[in-house]
Amino acid sequence: MIENLKPYTGPHETHMLPELFIQDVLSKEDDRLWIPNGQNRWSRPLCLNVSQGYWVHLTRFKGRGFLSRHRHPAPVHAYVLKGTWRYLERNWTATPGSYLFETPGDIHTLVVDQEQDEMITLFQNHGAITYFDENNRIEKVVDVFHYVNLAERHFEKVGLGADYVKNFIR
User: Fold this and answer.
1) Between vectors from CA 16 to CA 49 and to CA 22, what angle results, nearest 5°?
2) Mind listing the pLDDT tens digit for each residue in 48-59?
3) Which of 7, 88, 124, 139 is 20 to 30 A from 13 (CA-CA)?
4) What is the pLDDT of residues 17-39, one digit of tens each?
5) In Å, what is the CA distance from 59 to each residue of 3, 34, 51?
6) Can you give the pLDDT at residue 17?
7) Is residue 117 predicted with pLDDT exceeding 90?
8) Alpha-carbon distance 154 to 83, whole Å?
9) Residue 160 CB burial class (10 angstroms; 0-12, 13-18, ≥19)
10) Distance between CA atoms of 121 and 110, rounded to whole angstroms?
């Protein structure tokens, strides 16, 4: 039974990276961890995997807002923790507990159109995100390195230091 379990004490891989553990990702203790990322929108990095080109983060909206029309060349996983949102191009609404697998290549626009205290969703993004303007022209392309640089500048600005981003890099 559980009482008889013993922790593993054998050899470990010599080149493995340390695990990344964050006790309470929804903690309200330090708002400096949330990076402004648009009107009424913030992002909190959890894992920035520069060797495999993906990032895991929380997206938070306070009030109404949107994430511009965009496309992913690789899978995206999303899990709603709080609040509601939808894609302008779909007929469903994501609510707390909803899970979404975004198919690579799809173009969509995330909308938080209900007035609410807060929306928080965990996203795991692979590859890059291509953003489009209202005329369907490419506006910008962002990837994990863009996100690392954004986080580095933000953490420096709010007094945590640019190196604080290293806590999330794997």
Assistant:
1) 55
2) 999 999 999 999
3) 124
4) 889 999 999 988 899 999 999 99
5) 40, 9, 22
6) 86
7) no
8) 25
9) middle
10) 11
Edge to edge, what strands does the sheet with 129-132 contain? 93-94, 85-87, 107-112, 65-71, 129-132, 138-142
Q: What is the pLDDT of residue 34?
A: 97
Sequence-separated (6 or more) residues with CB below 8 Å from residue 32? 155, 158, 159, 160
Q: Would you state the structure tokens that stand for residue 82, as one six-digit string?
A: 């709080």
| C-alpha–C-alpha distance, residues 97 and 77, integer Å | 13
Instruction: Pull the structure tokens for residue 85.
Output: 């949102």
Torsion of CA 34, 36, 37, 43, to 10 degrees: 0
Report the predicted TM-score, pTM, of the whole model to 2 decimal places. 0.93
Residue 94, pLDDT above cutoff 90: yes
CA pair distance 124, 78, nearest whole angstrom = 6
Burial string for 34-63 (b: 16+ CB within 10 Å, else e) reads: bbebeeebbbbbbebbeeeebbbbbbbbbe
Distance CA 123, CA 144 (A): 13
> Tell me, what's the pLDDT at 29?
83
3-state DSSP assignment of residue 31? helix
Q: What is the DSSP letter of 19?
A: P
